[in-house]
Amino acid sequence: MVMESLPTFTKPASQRWESIPADIRQRLLSNVWCGQCRHETTITNFSGTIKGGDLLLVGKCAECRSDVARVIEGS
């Protein structure tokens, strides 16, 4: 049984993430490309930071546990 950790965010990343509607956040989490699986997957055990004005989520593929990332561009 794999235990999933709660997301950790920097304060600016948390503010950006919380500004996104919950249904859109869920869609973003379930639409991440895994280079190992070679298809769309869900990101798990992720953390968030702001890089270059964009929100960067870094975590693990729900299927193979490889490293994956999702960039959410700033406005």
What does this protein structure show overall?
- There is one protein chain.
- The protein is of the alpha+beta class and 75 residues long.
- It has one domain (8-72).
- Helices cover 21% and strands 41% of the residues.
- It has helices at residues 11-18, 22-29; strands at 8-9, 32-34, 39-41, 43-51, 54-61, 67-72.
- It has a four-stranded mixed β-sheet.
- The termini are far apart.
Number of domains: 1
**How would you describe the shape?**
globular
Structure classification: alpha+beta
Distance between the termini: 39 Å
Biggest sheet descriptor: 4 strands, mixed
Query: Order of strands in the sheet with the most strands?
Result: 1-4-5-6
Poorly predicted runs of 5 or more residues: none
The pLDDT mean sits at 92
| Beta-strand residue percentage | 35-45%
The helix/strand series, from N terminus to C terminus, equals EHHEEEEE
- Report the total helices: 2
Compute the gyration radius: what is it? 12 Å
- Strand tally is 6
Fraction of residues in helices?
Answer: 10-25%
Organism: Simplicispira suum
Protein name: DUF5679 domain-containing protein
Give a quick rundown of the structure.
With 75 residues, this protein is an alpha+beta fold. It contains 2 helices and 6 strands.
What descriptors fit this protein?
21% helix, 6 strands, two-stranded antiparallel ribbon, 75 residues, single chain, 4-stranded mixed sheet
